[in-house]
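Sequence and fold:
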Amino acid sequence: MKTKVQKKETIDKLSQKIPVAGVVVFTSFSREGEKGLSVAQMRNLKKALRGMGAEYFVAKKNLINISTKNSGMSDLVDVSKFDGSVGLAIGGKELDSIALSKSVYDFSRANPVFRIFGAVVENKYLDADSFKDFARLGSKEMLVARLFGMMQYPMRNLLLVLNNIKK
């Protein structure tokens, strides 16, 4: 059990990280009465997130609720409604939010015990289903490439028609 000083440190750390985060994913790594993730699985998750520039925090729901209130996010999410143990995957604003979401989603698919409750992406709350749809999107680079391809397609066809008329 944590001391008051340790709890305050946790609240302070989360209160500093949450407001400057581009993505905060609320997850559960164990359910009541079930075996949770192993230490090795948690280590792999944290290592994968660290490699992207994100972090994974585990704290009691009450401490997370206090941190969300301190950071002005309490109107978006109420952690006390989540069941099981709660963990947070936090990525900064400079991080590609789709890539982080995809990484967390892929981990949840590989580990059925790991559950996603929802996420706050750029100050908007996404429930679990919306988050999964968001995570299935391609990377930012791929979406931009698709957009340019779609913009280029009509112009190319117009040029082909004009060339055929000219001939």
